[in-house]
Amino acid sequence: MRLDHTSDLWWKNAVIYCLDVETFLDSDGDGVGDFQGLIRQIDYLAGLGVTCLWLMPFYPSPNRDDGYDVTDYYGVDPRLGTLGEFVELVRTANDRGIKVIVDLVVNHTSDEHPWFKAARADRSSPFRSWYVWRDEPAEEPRGISFPDKETSNWEREDGSGQYYLHRFYRFQPDLNIANPAVRDEIARIVGFWLQMGVAGFRMDAVPFLLETEGIAEGVEDDPHHFLRDLRAFATRRRGETMLLGEVNTDLKALARFFGDEDGDQLNVQFGFLLNQNLWLSLAREHAEPLEQVIRSLPAAPPDNTWATFLRNHDELSLDKLTESQRKEVFAAFGRRKDMQLYGHGLRRRTAAMLGGDGPRLRMAWSLMLSLPGTPVIFMGDEIGMGENLAIPDRMSVRVPMQWSDSRNGGFSSAPAKELVRPMRAGRFGPKAVNVAAQRRDDDSLLNFLERLIRRRKETPEFGWGSSELIETAAPQLFAHRCEWQGSTVAAVHNLSGRKAHATLDLGVQAGDKVAIDDLLERREHRPNRDGTLEVELAGYGYLWLRIRRGGERAVS
Ligand code: GLC
């Protein structure tokens, strides 16, 4: 293996950790997490093995959509700190080998952004055409993002009587991507944060950003050219820049977001289809949905990849499954109406859905960390935090971090009623689930994940290699093999609680001299003469193996 290759395209062997500064750690007792708090916990993240932090929006914002409604793209919300402290964070994180990427939310602004205020105040303002206006609401674009709160994508602006486009809440007017001045401004924002030291962006709502339906003037230029230009610009400014896009769209459209030929648009896309089918497989205890989606996904170009995840900060969207598949996932992981959202999602966190720390949860982590792609961890999932259903809609999963069993879970010294979001109590609350206790317990989920992440980073075949499914006769087993530069690893996961046995094709020829290393536990494995391997897995068991050929040296 040429490990030196892994440093250039760093996103192909990264471990990304998503966090909201607001709910991570409050350093000054005002009930709101802040950059100083985060800086204090950098070594915690470094110890876990995180190599890249994704910061959810921290920009000035009226906070009606948790910061995804921005009023100034060039600043830091004063509740969280200052731009100076942001730079200190980047510097400290870099020192610990951690890159920082930031949320780029430019599909829309807040309706309180000065651009929109100017646009709405005066039809002849140059900012008017920064947004999308029509005399009458159009049919297009179709689909409503938040059907519990909105019935249309168009909102009447009283002054002019015209309607503006908003793909999300009505207080989030969409920017007009067809306007060259808007494109220039987005590039300027990207340039600004690159200058502040970030290594890339998590791009919010990319399909909506590129969407031009509804723009009355008609748009000739392919919006994907804009994405390509933006990527080229960002890479010129800073060679290592990664664009990681939120693209939850149909299978047919996905490949275009990497770029038509050589992956010159998004370096990385979140694997939403993969994620939805992963949950279906977990619900069914059957590998087929996951296998089938992996077979159907377009291949990522060589320098690009998928981001894999169990859960993120939004609802667990199951919108690409069929109605009956969705029902299966609801029945397994969120039967109660108050756990469901928008008719297609679950507002729950990983550990709570999988019954808390135990073999099933650990198997799910092992599976996610071994899938082809780059793993993304949502804050608090490394200790198995649960959601707080008392918090409305998607915010139920965005609970404050549980650092200890002390007051407010160690998140803040403020009175409980002043916390940015309430802590949860009970089985998944800080008394039962917290960092301090898990650090001191060798067998905790935190320490388990630390070991697993270490192994994942030492096994670049998973992120870099060409991956192939291994057929077995046991439907509850998901088995795959990844090959990179002559080195092969294989992983097997038992999705069911029942013991399973299988004969694995390791991709070696009969008579080849092979040795097999167990990458996770001290187990001996001897291949059959024909190059296959018999494996037996306990309920929810898993194996990671490295296959050494022709006397290749064992590593560790
Ligand atoms: C994305 C974010 C979500 C936000 C929305 C609008 O889907 O993940 O949290 O509400 O965009 O910006």
Give the topology, please.
Layout: H1 5-8, E1 16-19, H2 35-40, H3 42-48, E2 52-55, H4 83-95, E3 99-104, H5 114-121, E4 133-134, E5 154-156, E6 163-165, H6 180-195, E7 200-203, H7 206-210, H8 223-237, E8 242-245, H9 251-258, E9 268-270, H10 272-284, H11 288-296, E10 305-309, E11 316-317, H12 323-333, E12 340-341, E13 345-346, H13 350-353, H14 359-370, E14 374-378, H15 435-439, H16 445-457, H17 461-464, E15 466-469, E16 477-484, E17 487-494, E18 500-505, E19 514-518, E20 532-537, E21 542-549
Parallel strand pairs: 1-2, 1-14, 2-3, 3-7, 7-8, 8-9, 9-10, 10-14
Antiparallel strand pairs: 4-6, 5-6, 11-13, 12-13, 15-16, 16-17, 17-21, 18-20, 19-21
Helix pairs in contact: 6-8, 10-11, 10-12, 14-16
Alpha-D-glucopyranose binds next to loops.
Description:
The chain has 556 residues and is an alpha/beta fold. It contains 17 helices and 21 strands. It has helices spanning 5-8, 35-40, 42-48, 83-95, 114-121, 180-195, 206-210, 223-237, 251-258, 272-284, 288-296, 323-333, 350-353, 359-370, 435-439, 445-457, 461-464, and strands spanning 16-19, 52-55, 99-104, 133-134, 154-156, 163-165, 200-203, 242-245, 268-270, 305-309, 316-317, 340-341, 345-346, 374-378, 466-469, 477-484, 487-494, 500-505, 514-518, 532-537, 542-549. An eight-stranded parallel β-barrel has the order 1-2-3-7-8-9-10-14, surrounded by four helices. A hairpin with a 6-residue loop joins strand 5 (154-156) and strand 6 (163-165). Helix 14 (359-370) runs parallel beside helix 16 (445-457). The protein is globular and about 80 Å long. The protein starts with a helix and ends in a 7-residue tail after the last strand. The mean pLDDT is 96. Alpha-D-glucopyranose is lined by residues 65, 68, 105, 168, 204-205, 246, 314.
